[in-house]
Amino acid sequence: MSEENPYPNASRRLENIFGHLIEHKEWRTLSPSQTLAVRTNREIKWNGHGYKDTFFKFDDRGTASLLGNRFGHFSSKEYHELRPWLEQTLRINLKTVCPAQKSMSEIHSPEVNHGFYDAIRPKGVIISFSEQDRLSRGHGNSTMDIYNLRYGNFNRLPDAVIWPESHEHVEIIVRAAQKFNVGCIPYGGGSNYVNALDCPIEEEKRMIVSLDMRQMNRILSLNNENMIVVVEAGAIAKDLEMELRKLGLSLGWDADSFEFSTVGGLAALRSSGDFENSIINMKIVTPTGTIQKSGSNTLPPFFSGPDITNLLFGSEGTLGVITELTFKLHYLTPFRHYVSIYFPTFHKGLLFLREIVQRKVINNLSDARLVDETGLQLVQAFNTITPTITTVFSEVIRKYYWKKFKNLKFGKMCLAAILIDGYDTSKMVNDEKRILKTGETFGGVDAGYDLGERMFFMSKGLPYLRDFLLDYYAISDYLDTSTSWSNIEDLVVKVRETIVTTCRAQSVRPRPFVAVRVDHIYETGASLTFTYGFNCRNLADPLGTLRRVEQDALVEILRSNGSISHHTTGIGKRKKECFIESLSEVGENCNALLPHGQIGDSTIYSSDSYHHSVGSSSQAFCISGDNAVVPCGQESGNGGGADSSSSRGKSHDFQSGEGTSRITFSGYQFVAGQERIENTGIRRNENESKDDENNISNVQTKKILKDCLQSWGHRYPGGKENYPKTPC
């Protein structure tokens, strides 16, 4: 009999480190029960976006180039048209440089809660109080974050960084945080763009810890027959995708921040379009227990009652810490092709996109994009072709032909790009022909493969350009939204006018650059990204001006029937004021899930919203059955019990103090207290009839669910003005 390992946590860390240093030859024969770490090897800038070896630079001749080798033939190439375009549009001057600071000058001392520290230290959890660790987890990737890193400071950073290595570690940390009143902010890949990682400043005296989830990066199981993979939430999405591709499999989705984001972060952000449709199951640790679907990792979708995981998508870390996800897999499509088409106007391009998505012109459409006339200028500035007499002459002839015979006028024409993935190249050729034929009906002209590929690359290249322009007193940002097809053009006009008007009022000179890009298309509408920038050399407060432009644009987006965000950014602290305005009272009651504000609750919901006090008298619930819904039990901590079951449900126990409360609800289990409750099968109260069980109507179900959400703790009487503030 083998002797038990006396140092399991140390062994686990060594296995992870060893996995990062070698290639995993065993991936091709991965067993469904095998546990392997997804490799993470990131050399990231401390004060900018992306990799240390990838950045823009002007050479001695003033020609811009993107150094490094991360982006294929777009890397280590000269962009001859980029500098002239920047000088004309943003009035940059190569002789006027604003270099970034070498390091952050002032970092406050950490606030240490010794009770919390002593509670987690014996459990083998890694914790750090170093300034560099705290700084790197105390911000995201927004323009405001990068500007502060390069030229300013942060008033508050996490007091410590913790690296949980298992679901059990997260449970220990969150339980200790609740007991000792410590705030937790989950950290994934650090690519957040809406200041969700910012620590609250005013009225927050508690210790705040950052939970860096990236040590939880293992594939727990993979089933080729059922086409599912179970993975820990800290796995970097790109690394996971690369390992799956070795097996001929794929996650089937992509995102602009794919190479830096964790899968847990993408789920919390509700990222990558219809990302949630690829998730079968997820496990999340809350201050009062763990939520997880029971026994659904190998089951097809079930439709018994509401789906509580919809509450978790887009929660951005406010409802708990995601520790594990189960994804649907797809067979890897080996071939990829880009198609691009010029259109006379943005209106014609929109008609084309709507046509191909509503009439399903092709079945294997992977992605589609459209840039307006201003965005097209930026795309053309990323041209890597070295200008010669021949290329310049050919371009002049081409422009004359388009203007004379195709009604394409520079300054008004736009560009659409289509991405096609497939298994059969001959079928993909036919799909391209159908797309081009559809484009011709709207005045489109084939623009070739290269421009289409360039458009999709720019989503990854623009953050590097943003950082580069800060050195030359040019600041830029973007906003994403979505709206219906019939509303797109009206929204675009109004938001663009708002950005220009606000910049003029803030003494921005010259006129700001504003471009619009359609990112994702649906049968009912599309998502849009507004990219804007301006010269900030003569501005006293560049960040204040940028913030004012953003706020005015957000207000106009909401006024023009657009969403406050779409798939790329989320809400965060950056947009929460506008988000709160768009919520109903019932929507704000999601704060009932946040006792004591342990899990970064001010990210989305206002700090003025109410929170619940959870202690020995709190009521948690276990969601572990199939369809029956039962109220959450006693309001006081004096004890009490109930056992109510249906032919389709499980048992419901209500206890006081450190006991466990359970409720049956639509195939989920919620584990509260110290114990883990398993699926125990059907129990019946002999005095209960089947007829009584089945009389729960949809209206009653909704009411009971609302009551359950609001019964986690104690309601504060007297309205919202009496709700206590819990900023973290």
TrEMBL record:
Subcellular compartments: Peroxisome
Enzyme Commission designation: 2.5.1.26
Keywords per UniProt: FAD, Flavoprotein, Lipid biosynthesis, Lipid metabolism, Peroxisome, Transferase
Chain residue ranges for the region called Disordered: 633-660, 678-698
Residues at which FAD binds: 256-262, 316-322
Catalytic activity: a long chain fatty alcohol + a 1-acylglycerone 3-phosphate = a 1-O-alkylglycerone 3-phosphate + a long-chain fatty acid + H(+)
UniProt site (Important for enzyme activity): 369
Role noted for this protein: Catalyzes the exchange of an acyl for a long-chain alkyl group and the formation of the ether bond in the biosynthesis of ether phospholipids.
Name of protein: Alkylglycerone-phosphate synthase
UniProt organism field: Funneliformis caledonium
